Amino acid sequence: MEKSLSEQIAYFVKNTKYENLPLELIELIKEALIDYVGVTIAGKEVKNVVDTKEYIKTRTNLKEATIFGCKEQSSVEYTAMINAMASHILDYDDVSWTTIGHPTVVVAPVAFAMAEKYNKTAKDVILAYALGVEVMHKLAQKTMPNISKKGWHTTCVYGVFGAVVAASVLKGSSFEVIINAIGIAASKASGIRSNFGTGTKSYHAGLASFNAIETLYLATYGLNSSVKALEDTDGFIQTYADINLLEDYNLNLGVNWDLLEFGLVFKQYPCCSASHPAADLIKNLTQKYLLEDINIEKIEVGCSLLAPKELICDFPKNALEAKFSMRYAIASMIIYKNLGLEEFTNKKVKEKKVQELMKKIDISIDSEFKKLGFIGTSPTRIKIKTKNIEIEEINYLAKGNPEKKLSEQEIKDKFFQCTKGLENQEKLFNLLKSFEKEKNLLRLLEYIK
């Protein structure tokens, strides 16, 4: 009899060991974990994260796992939630074009929290991450771009499945428990794109992480679900993706690992990736033509189908909204000559010169890029008219993509920027570079406090 999708996932989890992981995959995962730890520590003091952490204190007294960047602990599910929020709040975390979402931000917080609770090794964390991301990405291969087109925030929708797989690996859950947990997770997939530009977007990552752990424990204590919750009539795939019949029921888990085939995008800028090709292009044009805002008469931006759905804040009034604004990314790069952490402050967003320049920027769907469909890479065409010249150039792909990788030094520089002020920066970075050698998480937890 053909295995259901949940059975395929459970079989994959129970039969894949660390030794089965390709070395190239392990190296990519370590790179993702370096990026994750850095952006999590960088985001720990953002108001939405701090406020949510205060709320958590009213809900539980459990001390099971460590909240990154401080000496506090909480229950394993709340720890995963707050760490996920912290790593996503700056929108500096990695991206997958398979989901057009953020895989590490939901899977890694669960993996670290569960590994700490159950005293697991770094290899266990890497395995949990590998299996979790593979599951969410192979599900996405069956259902994208439909789910994104419908307005769902894919990080949360797919993330709950990846996170529950990671949790089940580290808890050593049974075949039956994993099947039930996947089915329950199908009822917890959520997150709507209209909340981009608010603190709730980062909460989507936290929600997926929290839901995953809660789901696994519910299944552990006996709550059951449909073995065909993913593919059955009115199941996850039909309801979320409008696919009524899944022609190919084989997820091919662990065959042509998705991360090795399509890779991850590591961000240069702490904002929505849909603006990154434009930011790269403007950076180059500003340097080449010595562009200044006072000389610019008009900027026309041609973008892809997805960009306007993600960059929903046309004229941002604060730093969080600015992360989802094409206009701000362009204006910042011209006026401040940068688009880093320092540029995402309320004061800089409200600067009169920035607000005036944004009014000179027109954005529309480019006819050429429209033919490419609902893609995540966000190719961008920019036309600039100044008092003296007219410029038109295209950028199809931002730096940080697998085809335009960040250098090892750029990865390290980003990590050190994010962990500025941390006493054990160098030790933490070196530990993560050889993470698979750690027998437990004690040294890592000591370094991130």
Automatic annotation (TrEMBL):
Residues 269-424 form the MmgE/PrpD C-terminal domain. It comes from the Bacteria. InterPro entries: MmgE/PrpD_sf, MmgE/PrpD_sf_1, MmgE/PrpD_sf_2, MmgE_PrpD, MmgE_PrpD_C, MmgE_PrpD_N. One of its GO terms (molecular function) is lyase activity. Pfam families: MmgE_PrpD_C (PF19305), MmgE_PrpD_N (PF03972). Residues 7-242 form the MmgE/PrpD N-terminal domain. Transmembrane segments: none annotated. Belongs to the PrpD family. This is 2-methylcitrate dehydratase.
